[in-house]
Write a structure and sequence with these properties.
338 residues; alpha/beta; D-Maltodextrin-Binding Protein, domain 2; four-stranded mixed beta sheet; 16 helices; globular
């Protein structure tokens, strides 16, 4: 045997002993740009979907997440962040992608069931253990001497829902819009710091121990308790807003990257029974009547209203309340002057 062949033989033998390559092909990567407090849910969901996709499509996919204040996230996508899918907690932040660059069609919400919202939540009030300030409803958050933690409605869907929850609960309870505005002004006068998103507000309340109450989504409460301990209790207001969690593929991105099939399957799986079960396990209210009934004890019945019912939809709410110079800016100016 020649010297060159003797040198090659160990290499050939080593190749024979290598483990067999997996039968599943390496598939594409997908980026889900989402709101601040959804990261734990999508971490669990991504694991389940990756297993589902491997079993059904034979591909190993990479699923990436990006989280932050919802409006800030939406603007990042509009400004060029290549999200294959966007999963928000209000329709307005996906509508932005239709008006800025036509990244999604104007009727994007009609492409999936339940107004393209596979889950919902409601705004609740988290208080210190024992509820020492006896907070029972939205009106209590406007009492003098109280400190309330709310994320900034200019950058956070959580913050916008809080503002609209207090306002809507007042007007559906029979008070005038002027009285509702006065209540919301009193509440925001009690806010010591406006964090950029729901996760920042949670840290301020639970870790920095600032504030007597935190307004957050019902789905966030178990996560707060798990991370920061059993030092809190949840107060369900008499009326609250139903927070729909809409989703969409980002059409221009998926067509450019060739990921439409994967992205659409990723969102459709949210409506499947396994997807709905994962949602319920993270205290998101499932759309599936079967899954909701199974977890009924986890979701107290609350008198809810929607943005469409009270505010004429998100576009109208944005125009009247959150655009520059609109009612929210007037509320903040009046709150600072108190």
């Amino acid at each position: 045997m020649s010297l060159s062949r003797r040198r090659l033989l160990p290499v050939l033998l080593s190749l024979l002993t290598l483990p067999a390559l997996p039968a599943h092909a390496i598939g594409p990567a997908l980026l889900n740009v989402s709101y601040d407090v959804s990261r734990e849910f999508y971490k669990a969901y991504n694991t389940a979907f990756a297993a589902h996709w491997k079993a059904t499509a034979g591909e190993v996919v990479t699923l990436n997440q990006s989280h932050g204040g919802s409006s800030r996230q939406a603007r990042s996508v509009a400004d060029g962040l290549e999200a294959d899918v966007i999963t928000m907690n209000q329709h307005n932040d996906i509508d932005v992608l239709a008006t800025r660059g036509a990244l999604v069609p104007a009727d994007w919400a009609k492409r999936l069931p339940h107004n393209a919202s596979p889950t919902t939540s409601i705004s609740v009030i988290l208080v210190r253990k024992g509820n020492p300030k006896n907070i029972r409803d939205w009106s209590d958050l406007g009492r003098a001497g109280l400190s309330v933690i709310i994320p900034n409605p200019k950058t956070s869907g959580n913050g916008r829902y809080t503002y609209l929850a207090a306002w809507g609960a007042a007007v559906t309870g029979g008070v005038s819009p002027a009285a509702a505005q006065a209540l919301v002004t009193r509440i925001f006068a009690n806010v010591p710091v406006l964090d950029g998103g729901g996760r920042g507000a949670t840290t301020t309340f639970a870790q920095r121990n600032l504030g007597d109450a935190l307004v957050t989504f019902e789905s966030e409460v178990p996560l707060i308790t798990r991370e920061f301990g059993d030092h809190f209790e949840v107060v369900y207001p008499a009326r609250s807003i139903l927070a729909e969690n809409p989703v969409s593929v980002v059409d221009k991105v998926v067509d450019k990257r060739g990921t439409r099939k994967l992205a659409e399957a990723y969102l459709q799986y949210l409506y499947s029974e396994p997807g709905q079960e994962i949602a319920a396990s993270f205290h998101l209210r499932p759309r599936s009547a079967k899954v909701l009934a199974k977890h009924a004890k986890s979701f107290p019945k609350v008198d809810t209203f929607t943005v469409d019912q009270v505010f004429g939809g998100w576009s109208q709410a944005q125009k009247e309340h959150f655009n520059d110079g609109a009612l929210y800016d007037q509320v903040i100016a009046a709150a600072k002057a108190r």
